Amino acid sequence: MERIYKYFSFFVVMILAAFTLFMLAAYELPGMSQMMFAEELTGALSEGEDTAISEVRYYASGVNDSYSKLRSWGIKRGVNGELPKADPGAPELLSKYNSLYLADTNKKTIYLTFDEGYENGYTSKILDVLYENKVNAIFFITGPYLEKEDALIRRMLDEGHAIGNHTINHKSLPLLDDKEIEEEVVGLDRKFHSKYGRNMVFLRPPKGEYSERSLSITSKLGYVNVFWSFAYDDWAVDRQRGWEYAFKKVTDNLHNGAVILLHAVSRDNAEALDAIIHHARESGYEFGDVFELEKYARGEG
Predict the structure, then answer these.
(1) Number of CB atoms found within 10 A of residue 248's CB
(2) Which of 7, 22, 176, 226 has the highest count of CB atoms within 10 angstroms of its CB?
(3) Regarding beta strands 224-225 and 202-203, do their DSSP bridges make them parallel or antiparallel, or are they unpaired?
(4) CATH fold of 31-297, please?
(5) What percent of the chain has pLDDT over 70?
(6) For 53, left (φ over 0), alpha (ψ -120 to 50), or beta?
(7) Which residues have C-beta within 8 Å of that of residue 287, sequence separation ≥ 6?
């Protein structure tokens, strides 16, 4: 019996050791990043039929109040150039904490933003198109992207784009305590500064999830939370539907002061981007310098 117990204990130890090694190396396994960001954006993406409703079933730190409650960013799309409608009270809340989802709606100006959870091979083409058309954008990056995609990030900086903060681990900020929020956001910023000598200004909350508490904390840290006035389910790499679909989806939803969210993992977006830019300009829109958004959010311009 003692011998059986000895071998059983040895077997358990070996299993635990193997599991530990697997977990330590897991982030390097092919496809792991894709798995982490498969649900890149969970904000309500209304086609215009229903008004978005806040996710009231989530709570931060066990507190059920309006300050800490998790909200899922949602918009009701407009038609024929009409402005989208955000959740009731959301625009006022964003404005209170130097955050935005729209720019100046009196101007036919569009701002492009891209979320970069992981690299899927299309960012170089996107950068080519932006360079050729003299358009800049905000690229929101995560911790893994910062560690692995130095050449692309340096190109973004060299070609006049802004690098935005999408946190280290893409965690829902309202579900973290105050210190954890700071670690996720400022931690990425510090790593970025150590590599490139610059700081991040723009922050995009992972999954479009936020609370008044997370807005307050990140605003006090100096960040501008940038949401969006248009997005669609382009992050699903196994559900690409052709460049024409992406083109129509975006161009049907152009509006004044638009802050457009596109995911760089989308083949459709990369292939449609040049046509989208040309169509927008032919329709009387211009693409704004994304660095203007900081002054706009802070009420300085």
Answers:
(1) 14
(2) 226
(3) parallel
(4) TIM Barrel (3.20.20)
(5) 78
(6) beta
(7) 109, 110, 111, 112, 133, 135, 136, 277, 280, 281
Per-residue confidence (pLDDT) for residue 16, from 0 to 100:
53
CA distances from 36 to 4, 116, 207 (A): 41, 12, 12
Listed by start position, the domains of the chain span 1-30, 31-297
Using DSSP, state whether 33 is helix, strand or coil.
helix
CA distance 215 to 185: 12
CA dist 76 → 193, 249, 277 (Å): 37, 14, 23
Closest CA to 276 of 161, 64, 133: 133
26 is written with which tokens? 């897991």
pLDDT at 2: 52
Mean pLDDT taken over the chain = 86
Task: Tell me if 260 sits within 8 A of 102, measured CB to CB.
Answer: no
Q: In this structure, are residues 224 and 202 in contact, taking their beta carbons and an 8 Å threshold?
A: yes
What's the rounded mean pLDDT across residues 273-289? Answer: 98
Nearest alpha carbon to residue 157 among 186, 122, 195:
195
Kind of pairing between the strands at 137-141 and 224-225: unpaired
- Tell me how far apart the alpha carbons of residues 185 and 222 are, in angstroms, rounded to a whole number: 11
DSSP state of 161: P
Per-residue pLDDT at 279: 98
Token representation of residue 113: 């933003």
Residue identified by tokens 């996710």 is: 55
Residue type, 264: A
Catalytic residues: 115, 263
pLDDT band at 259 (very low <50, low <70, confident <90, very high): very high
199 burial (CB, 10 Å; 0-12 / 13-18 / 19+) is middle
